[in-house]
Specification:
Chain lengths: 260, 332
């Protein structure tokens, strides 16, 4: 089976510092691999174990420094790494990102069987890129994948976690799946893996390499734009402290007041 | 005249119209006042035997026009059956704005529709407005909840998803003369590539609908044990709420991963959030700081959670909570 694993490098949103003008200070912001993509990588590794002759290409769109993250992933045992990097891609929204990634896959890995994405990224948290790629490649998609149940060359059986329960679904391949938090133990790179990875190149492709019209990507190719960004207002509250339980308890009634 | 606001109406597994439909309809009505002559419309893909039942529900919730496709294939949701139909319908209806509930189904479907129509989609909005040029201004949190962004679309329809319970449904039912329009779709013998094999409902105690809960009683490492979380459950039951947790509590095995609130857990917007034995680390508070009211119980008066709490009590949660439950029960 031929798998494309899509991963994103994201800023560690737990470590955000603000400038005086209430904009995010981007310098020195730590970059991490998006947490959901780590779960997605585990599913890819599981398939690789269970389905002989599986190869996995890890693909990311982002600045050059994302190459380091891809190197680390290669050390986990993935076969190839591709980085889509071009100033023209900058400021793509989910539509333009979906378009760019799907074009790269169609051009460079047209014989794929499965595309695996993380369900959402912690910086944007839109959960839209996976379905957008699936749309442009006209693939069936399975979102909210928690576990792999079974796989063979032609189909996958997966467990989805939804609001009210768990759904076991089977999809024919080719398909795209989006993986959410799960309980797979994160694989650690072995020394052998690290050595293997140093022998491999991260292939860097730009807009021209994938045959994409520059107007289809980046800010130009994005139907949405941010008109305003502002710091989430921190409530200007002064905590009122209580010592007496009875008085404290009165504040727990939020519905009573409304119904009266 | 405006081409109108279209709301995707999800049919739940239990064959109800998802309540988020009506929350969106109410919001749409508010937006419509800023657009001239703007009809409120719905699109529903439904099993043939359900549509009559739903008609009344659409009427009393004030929809001007409801487009529906009735087909046995809509028994259970799969993307490759629903998406092509929805895409074709939205293209034909050609609304100015389309709103979709940010449920599992909505989040699965919405980006398929927007990508196919080459338009923009803003996910999980917490605010919707019409700006001075008559465009949809969709505001949403990003960067783990720390940055708010207002997003506009250059293309039509302007699309947005909104989580359940972010907006309120109408206070009172109305009765309007809804126009129902049946739409056709030719599957040309297409068979879904996706097959739903099995569905296991979460047992009620496992369903922790944090996204929808009005009251969340959350526990952290300070709740120490399963005993501690039992207390929280009791308090939650007393208040008609659900239990949430910090990441450390989840890591300690006191609560399920589903219950985790915060940057790597869920973002919640309840009316009341009660934090017990939670220090209030930023990674936790970004997931709950939009709650209407926050109450904290912690033995450390300097815990950061008190900086964002409206009400607080300093002390041992194991002593405070049982008394609290008693007091609340007495007064209701
Ligand atoms: C990348 C990243 C992502 C993260 N994502 C999340 C996330 O999504 N959600 C999240 O919650 N955390 C997250 N964290 C972890 C976060 O930084 C904190 O470590 C965590 O929230 C702390 O949990 P806590 O408040 O339960 O524990 P602690 O910080 O240990 O606080 C325990 C509190 O309980 C109080 N206490 C103890 N005993 C009692 C008692 N008997 N009665 C009353 N009070 C008592 C103490 O005074 C203390 O304030 C993340 C961290 C990282 C690095």
């Amino acid at each position: 089976m031929k798998i494309v694993l899509c991963v994103k490098q994201v800023p560690d949103t737990s470590d955000i510092k603000w400038t005086e003008n209430n904009t995010i200070q981007r310098e020195g912001l730590e970059s991490i691999i998006n947490p959901c993509d780590v779960y997605a990588a585990e599913i890819a590794l599981t398939i690789k174990k269970e389905c002989p002759n599986t190869t996995v290409t890890v693909l990311s769109m982002g600045p050059n420094q994302a190459g380091k993250m891809l190197k680390k992933l290669l050390a986990l045992g993935f076969d190839e790494a591709v980085l889509l990097s071009d100033k023209k891609f900058a400021a793509s929204d989910t539509y333009a990102t979906g378009k760019t990634i799907s074009k790269a896959i169609a051009e460079k890995i047209p014989d794929f069987d499965l595309i695996i994405c993380g369900q959402y990224a912690i910086d944007g948290d839109t959960a839209q890129t996976g379905p957008s790629i699936a749309n442009f490649l006209n693939l069936p998609q399975i979102t909210y994948v928690k576990e792999l149940v079974e796989c063979d060359e032609n189909k996958l059986t997966l467990l989805r976690e939804l609001e009210e329960g768990f759904e076991k679904v089977q999809t024919k391949l080719p398909a795209l799946i989006c993986v959410t938090e799960n309980s797979y133990e994160p694989t650690r790179a072995t020394i052998g893996g690290v050595i293997e990875a140093t022998k491999k190149e991260v292939k860097i492709l730009n807009c021209n390499d994938i045959g994409l019209e520059p107007a289809c990507t980046g800010l130009k190719g994005s139907p949405t734009y941010v008109s305003k960004a502002f710091r989430a207002v921190k409530k200007e509250v002064q905590c009122e402290f209580f010592e007496n339980i009875e008085d404290f308890a009165k504040n727990f009634d939020i519905l009573g007041g409304e119904n009266e | 005249m405006s081409k109108g606001i279209l709301i995707y109406s999800e049919v739940t597994r239990e064959n109800y119209l998802h309540t988020v439909t009506f929350e969106l309809a109410n919001k749409a009505r508010e937006l419509a006042q800023k657009l001239s002559d703007c009809p409120i419309m719905a699109l529903v893909l439904v099993k043939p035997d359900l549509i009559d039942e739903f008609k009344e529900v659409f009427r009393v919730n004030g929809f001007d026009k409801v487009f529906y496709v009735a087909d046995e294939r809509f028994r259970t949701y799969t993307t490759d059956i629903f998406a092509p139909v929805a895409i074709k319908c939205v293209r034909d209806i050609d609304p100015e704005i389309m709103l979709i509930g940010a449920t599992n189904q909505g989040r699965d479907l919405a980006p398929r529709i927007s990508s196919a129509l080459h338009t923009g989609l803003t996910a999980d909005c917490t605010g919707l407005d019409i700006n001075e040029s008559g465009k949809l201004a969709a505001t949403r949190p990003t960067f783990g909840g720390q940055l708010m962004a207002t997003i506009l679309s250059k293309k039509f329809p302007q699309m947005a998803t909104v989580r359940p319970k972010v907006f309120k449904p109408m206070k009172e039912f109305v009765n309007v003369d809804t126009n129902f329009v049946r739409m056709g779709y030719d599957f040309c013998g297409y068979k879904s590539k996706i097959e739903v094999l099995e569905f296991t409902k979460k047992i009620t105690s496992e369903i922790n609908n944090l996204d929808c809960a009005e009251v969340i009683v959350a526990g952290g490492r300070g709740m120490q044990s399963a005993e501690g979380f039992k207390l929280l459950k009791e308090l939650a039951d007393t208040l008609g709420g659900v239990v949430g947790a910090s990441r450390l509590a989840v890591e300690m095995g006191l609560a399920d991963k589903n219950c985790q609130v915060g940057q790597t857990g869920k973002t919640v917007i309840p009316k009341l959030y009660i934090a017990c034995g939670i220090s209030g680390a930023l990674q936790h508070t970004v997931g709950m700081n939009n709650a209407e009211r926050v109450i904290a119980i912690n033995k450390d008066r300097n815990a950061p959670i008190f900086e964002i709490a409206d009400y607080g009590m300093v002390g041992d949660a194991f002593e405070i909570i049982p008394k609290l439950i008693q007091s609340i029960k007495q007064h209701t």
